[in-house]
Amino acid sequence: MIKKVLIANRGEIAVRIIRACKELNIKTVAIFSEADSDALHVRLADEAYCIGPTASSESYLNFTNIMSVATLTQVDAIHPGYGFLSENAAFAEICAECGITFIGPTPDAITQMGTKDIARTTMQKAGVPTVPGSDGIIESVEEGISIAEEIGYPVIIKATAGGGGKGIRVARDQAELQKGISITQKEAKLNFGNSGVYLEKYIEDFRHVEIQVLADKYGNVIHLGERDCTIQRRLQKLVEETPSPAINEEKRREMGEAAVQAALAVNYVGAGTIEFIYDHRNGNFYFMEMNTRIQVEHPVTEMVTGIDLIKEQILVASGEKLSYTQEEVTFKGWAIECRINAENPDRNFMPSPGKIGMYLPPGGFGVRVDSAVFPGYVIPPYYDSMIAKLITYGDTREEAIAKMKRALSEFVIEGIDTTIPFHLRLFNHEVFVHGDFNTKFLEDYPLKQEDDA
Questions:
Q1: Distance set, CA 65 to CA 39, 234, 281 (Å)
Q2: Using omega within 30 degrees of 0 as the cis cutoff, is the peptide bond preceding 243 cis?
Q3: Using CA atoms, how far apart are residues 109 and 118, in angstroms rounded to an integer?
Q4: Which residue numbers delimit the Biotin carboxylation domain (predicted)?
Q5: pTM more than 0.70
């Protein structure tokens, strides 16, 4: 059993991992940049070490410094959280070479699923539905034009090493395609060090539905149902819920089985998420990508299944078998998560870093807050702008929405702008409440300040 874990992350996910470790009687080591010296994860861990300056490249992405601390503190394992090094196969490889357990999948699985054109081919071989498109990376603009004419416009250009909404561009005709391929290749080279791009048919009216999977080292794979992440802004998720208002029991089983097959195809170990494009008009679904890590939105799955995903990650990494069989996984109630960010929704979501004055999170039955914030904490401008994840749970979607509206109205954060007003507008919008919408919701309904009247 793992006895000591280094958390190679910051913010709320670092706090979440430390809490899970404490409940498993595992010692924790926090790392922090100079900008995070006063952070909550630093205070909560058994040990904490500064690993570099403010810039992520010199701290949270610094292999050498992180491994030096891991060796110095004699940890058994490293939990990467999400973001930063969580999907970095080279880092997972270095952990293995140093005799330290990487709490996540193998480097090979990360590589297979992280390189999107390879992942697409792997899924096709495993019988998982994929969107019509190119066979791997396109070699030239001319090849791209030929494929687009074959599958029909609009098409979507994707960087094979992309992620987080970057390296994606839609082309509706040949002129846009020619320009789009060139721009996306340059953007991909700059952001990911890999200029490779591939094409897919662009499905315009769809929902973003993902399936949570868990796998152990003994070939056991289960799914924990879906999360609906359709409410997005510029391909960034804002609200997540489970179950999906658009999925029935039969479709859940079908998508769950496809996700399990996807995980088995790469000998997956740990917690992972298979993201699907779900055509809610005809019920078809297509593989989008796999996230080989814990997701930001994992709490909603925990709320409806009663399964602690972080603990399961740690237990699986320790060599334990999964604590549950597929038959033992049950779904009860409805959970919704709002990402509360330090941004001004009325100024095009402009970041709002700064010092928090009063901080009073909501509470009560069916309300959960995952955060690393406290009164006097300074939201730094150098990292993501998340303040908290607000999760509500009810027997029905209506009850979960009612709890969320109540919790949002209770949430007090002074000193900075937040996205709370945006979320209140969303949860009072009749189309959202009705549940029939697609990923273009915010294009169709911008939710401006004047809607508050």
A1: 19, 34, 50
A2: yes
A3: 11
A4: 1-447
A5: yes
The 3-class SS string of 385-443 reads CEEEEEEEEECCHHHHHHHHHHHHHHCEECCCCCCHHHHHHHHCCHHHHHCCCCCCHHH
Rg of the chain over all Cα atoms, to the nearest angstrom: 21
Closest-CA residue to 104 (of 256, 240, 213): 213
Burial of 180: CB neighbours in 10 Å, binned 0-12, 13-18, 19+: buried
pLDDT in tens, 141-173: 999 999 999 999 999 999 988 776 778 999 999
Q: Which amino acid is at 237?
A: K
Tokens at 35, concatenated: 């900008």
CA–CA distance, 208 with 124 (Å, rounded to integer): 20
87 alpha carbon, distance to own chain's centre = 11
For residue 115, what pLDDT is reported?
A: 84
Question: Which residue segments constitute the domains of the chain, with CATH numbers given?
Answer: 4-88 (3.40.50.20), 132-201 (3.30.1490.20), 207-452 (3.30.470.20)
What is the token pair recorded at 59?
């701290």
Q: Are 158 and 200 in contact (CB under 8 A)?
A: yes
- Residue 315 near residue 270 (C-beta atoms within 8 A): no
Maximum Cα interatomic distance, the chain, rounded to a whole number of Å: 60
pLDDT at 370 over 80: yes
The set of catalytic residues is 293
For residues 322 and 291, is the Cβ–Cβ distance under 8 A?
no
Give residue 365's identity as a one-letter amino acid code: F
Q: Nearest 5°: phi and psi at 36? A: -110, 20
Find where tokens 């908290």 sit: 388
